Amino acid sequence: MRRLVAGVLCLMVAGLSPAGDLMADAAHGHDHHHSHDRTARVVSPLQRARHLQRHHEFERAAELLAEVIENEPFNREAQLLYADVLLHDARIDEARAACVRVALAGAHVLAGYCSVQVLTASGEHDRAFAAATSLEFNQLSEEAQIWALEISAVAAWKAGQLQTADQWFRKAAAYPNVPHSTEHAYNEFRASLVY
Predict the structure, then answer these.
(1) What torsion, rounded to 10 degrees, do the Cα atoms 58, 55, 9, 161 define?
(2) Residue 154 confidence class, pLDDT cut points 50, 70, 90
(3) What is the pTM (predicted TM-score) of this model?
Protein backbone atom coordinates (compact mmCIF):
# COMPACT_ATOMS: atom_id res chain seq x y z
CA MET A 1 0.00 0.00 0.00
CA ARG A 2 2.81 2.42 0.87
CA ARG A 3 4.44 1.82 -2.51
CA LEU A 4 1.12 2.39 -4.25
CA VAL A 5 0.51 5.63 -2.39
CA ALA A 6 4.08 6.68 -3.11
CA GLY A 7 3.45 6.33 -6.83
CA VAL A 8 0.78 8.69 -8.37
CA LEU A 9 -0.11 12.52 -8.02
CA CYS A 10 -1.20 14.15 -11.24
CA LEU A 11 -3.48 11.84 -13.15
CA MET A 12 -6.76 13.64 -12.73
CA VAL A 13 -5.19 17.05 -12.60
CA ALA A 14 -4.05 16.97 -16.17
CA GLY A 15 -7.33 15.33 -17.07
CA LEU A 16 -9.40 18.19 -15.72
CA SER A 17 -10.63 20.17 -18.68
CA PRO A 18 -13.29 22.70 -19.55
CA ALA A 19 -15.21 19.79 -21.08
CA GLY A 20 -15.10 18.15 -17.66
CA ASP A 21 -16.58 21.33 -16.19
CA LEU A 22 -19.43 21.16 -18.68
CA MET A 23 -20.05 17.50 -17.89
CA ALA A 24 -20.09 18.24 -14.17
CA ASP A 25 -22.50 21.12 -14.75
CA ALA A 26 -24.73 18.87 -16.84
CA ALA A 27 -24.82 16.39 -14.00
CA HIS A 28 -26.08 19.19 -11.78
CA GLY A 29 -28.76 20.30 -14.24
CA HIS A 30 -26.99 23.27 -15.87
CA ASP A 31 -27.70 23.65 -19.57
CA HIS A 32 -25.05 25.74 -21.33
CA HIS A 33 -26.63 25.39 -24.76
CA HIS A 34 -29.78 27.20 -23.70
CA SER A 35 -28.26 29.71 -21.35
CA HIS A 36 -28.60 33.30 -22.50
CA ASP A 37 -26.35 34.69 -19.76
CA ARG A 38 -23.19 32.63 -19.36
CA THR A 39 -21.91 34.95 -16.65
CA ALA A 40 -24.88 34.07 -14.46
CA ARG A 41 -23.83 30.44 -13.97
CA VAL A 42 -22.57 29.53 -10.56
CA VAL A 43 -18.88 28.64 -10.39
CA SER A 44 -17.88 26.35 -7.56
CA PRO A 45 -14.75 26.96 -5.47
CA LEU A 46 -13.22 23.86 -7.06
CA GLN A 47 -13.83 25.27 -10.56
CA ARG A 48 -12.26 28.59 -9.51
CA ALA A 49 -9.24 26.75 -8.09
CA ARG A 50 -8.89 24.77 -11.32
CA HIS A 51 -8.98 28.04 -13.29
CA LEU A 52 -6.30 29.56 -11.04
CA GLN A 53 -4.13 26.45 -11.40
CA ARG A 54 -4.40 26.56 -15.19
CA HIS A 55 -3.28 30.19 -15.11
CA HIS A 56 -0.33 29.38 -12.84
CA GLU A 57 -1.75 31.25 -9.85
CA PHE A 58 -0.69 28.42 -7.56
CA GLU A 59 -0.69 30.25 -4.23
CA ARG A 60 -4.25 31.52 -4.69
CA ALA A 61 -5.37 28.09 -5.93
CA ALA A 62 -3.80 26.42 -2.88
CA GLU A 63 -5.63 28.78 -0.52
CA LEU A 64 -8.97 28.11 -2.19
CA LEU A 65 -8.38 24.35 -2.29
CA ALA A 66 -7.45 24.33 1.40
CA GLU A 67 -10.89 25.81 2.10
CA VAL A 68 -12.61 23.21 -0.10
CA ILE A 69 -10.68 20.39 1.60
CA GLU A 70 -11.48 21.73 5.05
CA ASN A 71 -15.17 21.18 4.24
CA GLU A 72 -14.66 18.01 2.16
CA PRO A 73 -11.44 16.30 3.35
CA PHE A 74 -11.88 13.26 1.09
CA ASN A 75 -12.84 15.09 -2.11
CA ARG A 76 -10.60 13.19 -4.56
CA GLU A 77 -10.60 15.84 -7.25
CA ALA A 78 -9.76 18.62 -4.79
CA GLN A 79 -6.99 16.56 -3.20
CA LEU A 80 -5.39 15.73 -6.57
CA LEU A 81 -5.51 19.33 -7.71
CA TYR A 82 -4.19 20.45 -4.32
CA ALA A 83 -1.25 18.04 -4.58
CA ASP A 84 -0.39 19.39 -8.04
CA VAL A 85 -0.57 23.00 -6.88
CA LEU A 86 1.57 22.23 -3.83
CA LEU A 87 4.25 20.63 -6.01
CA HIS A 88 4.56 23.87 -7.96
CA ASP A 89 5.59 25.50 -4.68
CA ALA A 90 7.91 22.58 -3.79
CA ARG A 91 5.68 21.64 -0.85
CA ILE A 92 6.48 17.94 -1.24
CA ASP A 93 5.35 16.66 2.18
CA GLU A 94 1.98 18.40 1.91
CA ALA A 95 1.49 17.06 -1.62
CA ARG A 96 2.34 13.55 -0.39
CA ALA A 97 -0.27 13.93 2.37
CA ALA A 98 -2.87 14.94 -0.23
CA CYS A 99 -2.08 11.73 -2.15
CA VAL A 100 -2.61 9.70 1.02
CA ARG A 101 -6.03 11.33 1.47
CA VAL A 102 -6.90 10.31 -2.12
CA ALA A 103 -6.05 6.72 -1.16
CA LEU A 104 -8.09 7.00 2.03
CA ALA A 105 -11.02 8.13 -0.13
CA GLY A 106 -10.76 4.80 -1.96
CA ALA A 107 -9.13 5.98 -5.20
CA HIS A 108 -6.04 3.80 -4.93
CA VAL A 109 -4.97 3.96 -8.57
CA LEU A 110 -5.31 7.75 -8.65
CA ALA A 111 -3.39 7.94 -5.38
CA GLY A 112 -0.67 5.82 -6.91
CA TYR A 113 -0.26 8.16 -9.88
CA CYS A 114 -0.40 11.11 -7.50
CA SER A 115 2.52 9.56 -5.65
CA VAL A 116 4.43 8.99 -8.89
CA GLN A 117 4.24 12.72 -9.48
CA VAL A 118 5.41 13.46 -5.92
CA LEU A 119 8.33 11.03 -6.22
CA THR A 120 9.34 12.57 -9.54
CA ALA A 121 9.15 16.09 -8.12
CA SER A 122 11.24 15.06 -5.12
CA GLY A 123 13.99 13.63 -7.34
CA GLU A 124 13.26 9.97 -6.58
CA HIS A 125 13.18 9.12 -10.28
CA ASP A 126 13.90 5.38 -10.09
CA ARG A 127 11.22 4.87 -7.42
CA ALA A 128 8.76 6.98 -9.43
CA PHE A 129 9.42 4.90 -12.55
CA ALA A 130 9.07 1.63 -10.63
CA ALA A 131 5.78 2.80 -9.15
CA ALA A 132 4.49 3.95 -12.55
CA THR A 133 5.22 0.56 -14.12
CA SER A 134 3.34 -1.21 -11.33
CA LEU A 135 0.09 0.72 -11.79
CA GLU A 136 -2.80 -0.21 -14.06
CA PHE A 137 -4.81 2.63 -15.55
CA ASN A 138 -7.25 0.89 -17.91
CA GLN A 139 -10.21 1.27 -15.55
CA LEU A 140 -9.73 5.06 -15.37
CA SER A 141 -11.63 7.55 -17.49
CA GLU A 142 -10.05 8.56 -20.78
CA GLU A 143 -9.00 11.93 -19.34
CA ALA A 144 -7.46 10.21 -16.34
CA GLN A 145 -5.63 7.75 -18.59
CA ILE A 146 -4.01 10.63 -20.48
CA TRP A 147 -2.94 12.17 -17.17
CA ALA A 148 -1.57 8.83 -15.93
CA LEU A 149 0.39 8.29 -19.12
CA GLU A 150 1.86 11.78 -18.95
CA ILE A 151 2.86 11.33 -15.30
CA SER A 152 4.37 7.94 -16.12
CA ALA A 153 6.19 9.24 -19.19
CA VAL A 154 7.76 12.08 -17.21
CA ALA A 155 8.82 9.60 -14.50
CA ALA A 156 10.39 7.33 -17.14
CA TRP A 157 12.12 10.29 -18.79
CA LYS A 158 13.62 11.49 -15.51
CA ALA A 159 14.73 7.93 -14.69
CA GLY A 160 16.55 7.72 -18.02
CA GLN A 161 14.10 5.21 -19.50
CA LEU A 162 13.80 7.14 -22.75
CA GLN A 163 12.24 4.43 -24.93
CA THR A 164 9.52 3.79 -22.35
CA ALA A 165 8.97 7.53 -21.90
CA ASP A 166 8.53 7.94 -25.65
CA GLN A 167 6.07 5.01 -25.79
CA TRP A 168 3.96 6.45 -22.97
CA PHE A 169 4.00 9.97 -24.43
CA ARG A 170 2.98 8.59 -27.84
CA LYS A 171 0.16 6.59 -26.27
CA ALA A 172 -1.10 9.70 -24.45
CA ALA A 173 -0.84 11.82 -27.60
CA ALA A 174 -2.92 9.29 -29.54
CA TYR A 175 -6.06 10.11 -27.53
CA PRO A 176 -8.47 12.70 -28.91
CA ASN A 177 -8.57 16.02 -27.05
CA VAL A 178 -5.10 15.75 -25.55
CA PRO A 179 -4.52 18.59 -23.07
CA HIS A 180 -2.01 21.27 -23.95
CA SER A 181 0.06 20.30 -20.89
CA THR A 182 0.57 16.79 -22.28
CA GLU A 183 1.57 18.09 -25.70
CA HIS A 184 3.96 20.56 -24.06
CA ALA A 185 5.58 17.86 -21.91
CA TYR A 186 6.00 15.60 -24.96
CA ASN A 187 7.55 18.44 -26.96
CA GLU A 188 9.98 19.16 -24.11
CA PHE A 189 10.91 15.48 -23.99
CA ARG A 190 11.55 15.35 -27.75
CA ALA A 191 13.58 18.57 -27.62
CA SER A 192 15.74 17.08 -24.86
CA LEU A 193 16.69 14.22 -27.19
CA VAL A 194 18.16 16.53 -29.83
CA TYR A 195 21.86 16.87 -29.31
Answers:
(1) -120
(2) very high
(3) 0.75
